[in-house]
Amino acid sequence: MKKILDDIVLNKRLEIEIRRNVYPIKDFEFSPFFYRTPLSLNASVLEPGKSGIIAEFKRRSPSKGIINDKADVVEVTKAYSDSGASGISVLTDHDYFGGADEDLKAVATNRTSPLLRKEFILDPYQVLEARAIGADAILLIAAILSKKEIHDLGKLARSLGMEVLLELHAEDELEKISPDDSLFGINNRNLQSFEVSLEHSMRLADKLPAHCTKIAESGIDSPETALQLKKEGFHGFLIGEYFMRQQNPGEAFKNFALQLNLLNN
To answer: Is 50 in the active site?
Structure first.
């Protein structure tokens, strides 16, 4: 399984070089989204009355294959937002997840919730690109980045008004955290083996800096599981596969959020 992650990173580096030649950085400034004021994902997750859920649009994955290749990205994400999603996550990797920049652009045109670009970001080019296609926040994955890369990419994102969701899984990744990081995603799924462990994530979350915002990612398939994680100190959840596997992802999100609210009150 480790080879899959290595292959994704290698493929992404090649993709970046191709895109850099086709879409020069100077062209990004002509995007209608580049100077638009970003929405705060962090504030939205913590906002009273909202679900705390960052609802994801995902067509497929290397570990699960096709999840839902029929759903319309605008229709689904609008339903997420209308039912109280704290944020919308859109996969833009094409080769392994079936996503596209055009998906994020389509959602950004009429956004009502903060938009997270879910991508394997390795290079400053992708941060600027994220701003140009409408992202309010980006994901940085500690498993594939050095401490310096996380710092530099995060600094660039914040200079553009975007927020950073720093994804962690292994305990040794805690060494890569900087004082500027305040929004953390704890991935319940090991990116090397793709195994899910909620207990591992809870232990790791306890070691994060005080007063940070903690988001639980992956393997959350019931309101009861989300409530358990909430009681363990998580402020929000990034959930995609569970909703996308349902016949109507938007309706699935609405029911999940309602049940979570009932359990929490």
So the answer is: no
